[in-house]
Amino acid sequence: MAELQFFEKVAARAGVASDTARSLTEATLRTLAERISGGEAAELADHVAYELRDCLVKGTEEPEVFAYDEFLRRVGERAGVDQDLAERGVEAVLQTLPRVVGHGEFEDALAQLPTELQALAQPVPREP
């Protein structure tokens, strides 16, 4: 999936404009890279659009340990949005990312996250 298509999917899922989707995507990927191991971040970087790879580069192998609220705070600060919009953005990115990196790679990264973030990655079933 090309970078532009990724932003369009995130924009549609989060209900935001494309430029906001770009900011939310970059902020989420940078924060995700801090929260997971360097090896796992590198694995994800291998699968995303070239323009997004820098967002997943980190200098250490060890992940930082921080909770759900801190994840959202960092995303909000980086993207310049409030916590509610940060949460919608994180949810949109986490639900779009498996289509790009593959479900196996995504599940490996997801396993390193707090359960609240894992829950955001699960799409809500649609009513029949």
Overall tally of structural domains = 1
CATH class: Mainly Alpha
Q: What does the oligomeric state look like here? A: single chain
Largest sheet: none
CATH topology: Globin-like
Helix-residue proportion = 55-70%
Q: Which descriptor suits the 3D outline? A: globular
Radius of gyration equals 13 Å
CATH structural architecture: Orthogonal Bundle
Query: Distance N terminus to C terminus?
Result: 28 Å
Order of helices and strands: HHHHHHH
Q: Please state roughly what percent of the residues sit in beta strands, choosing from under 5%, 5-15%, 15-25%, 25-35%, 35-45% or over 45%.
A: under 5%
Residue-averaged pLDDT, rounded? 91
Characterize this entry briefly.
This protein has 128 residues and is an all-alpha fold. It has helices at 3-14, 18-35, 38-45, 68-79, 83-101, 103-110, 115-120. Helix 1 packs across helix 5.
Characterize the structure shown.
By secondary structure, the chain is an all-alpha fold. The protein has a single domain, classed as Globin-like, CATH 1.10.490. The protein contains 7 helices and no strands. The longest helix is centred in the C-terminal third of the chain and has 19 residues, at 83-101. The chain is globular.
